User: Which sequence fits this backbone?
């Protein structure tokens, strides 16, 4: 089956969790892999919704981009785009949901328990040590993976040490069809090595490839 006219949702970039109006917790994700995936899916003829955290990347041609900030914003956008939108967001995302989800975003696991309305002033406390209480963010992949039915869901992992075993566990725990296991040396670079692990027990190694080539290999999974 071709990807033409099929709907594909891609997430990319970091999430950002505010401590106060001018400070936040985030990570170093460039968003590059997700933007390459969105571009590759669009070239393959898919209708692509790219849900992007705060990054400086140009929107690929033919892609509909939705910018989000926090993990909870991203969860709401992914649910609407992938599972199907209700109410007012229907006009934006459509009612029926999508055929595939590529969860390339580096979603922050934690957010501050409370976001201060005004600036957090160091002088206020007078102490040399401060504590920031964090609460767990929702797991977007696991949340939608549990409701995906026969749609394709691809997650990503970055592991050090015994990556394969942990990635396989993650695949099952999060309900994905595939996990793309990234080599940590690839962070921020143009080339990368990825091991693609399938729910069906498959394992494909893509070694020292351009991110564009990896994106094309991943998008090809959607051809089914
Ligand atoms: N992910 C997500 N929601 C989160 C955290 C992660 O959807 N709150 C997704 C990522 O987009 C990625 C996959 O889950 O596709 C792997 O995330 P990772 O952080 O490696 O997995 P965790 O189990 O959250 O982390 P760890 O194994 O380090 O505990």
Assistant:
């Amino acid at each position: 089956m071709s990807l033409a006219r099929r709907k594909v949702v891609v997430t990319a970039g970091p999430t950002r969790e505010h401590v106060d109006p001018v400070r936040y917790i985030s990570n170093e994700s460039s968003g590059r892999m997700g933007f390459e995936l969105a571009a590759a899916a669009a070239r393959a003829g898919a209708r692509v919704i790219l849900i992007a955290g705060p990054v400086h990347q140009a929107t690929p041609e033919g892609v509909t981009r939705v910018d989000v900030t926090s993990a909870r914003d991203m969860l709401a956008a992914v649910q609407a785009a992938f599972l199907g939108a209700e109410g007012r967001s229907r006009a934006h995302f459509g009612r029926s949901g999508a055929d595939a989800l590529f969860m390339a975003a580096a979603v922050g696991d934690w957010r501050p328990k409370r976001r201060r309305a005004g600036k957090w002033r160091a002088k206020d406390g007078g102490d040399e040590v401060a504590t920031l209480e964090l609460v767990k963010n929702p797991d977007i992949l696991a949340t939608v993976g549990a409701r995906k039915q026969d749609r394709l869901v691809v997650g990503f992992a970055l592991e050090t040490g015994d990556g394969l075993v942990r990635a396989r566990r993650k695949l099952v725990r999060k309900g994905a069809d595939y996990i793309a296991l990234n080599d940590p040396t690839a962070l921020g670079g143009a080339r990368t090595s990825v091991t693609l692990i399938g729910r069906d027990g498959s394992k494909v190694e893509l070694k020292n490839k351009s991110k564009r080539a990896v994106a094309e290999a991943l998008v090809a999974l959607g051809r089914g």
The CA atoms of residues 191 and 211 lie 6 Å apart. The chain has a mean pLDDT of 91. The chain has seven helices and twelve strands. Residues 71, 103, 105, 107, 109, 137, 139-141, 155-158, 170, 174 surround cytidine-5'-triphosphate (CB under 6 Å).
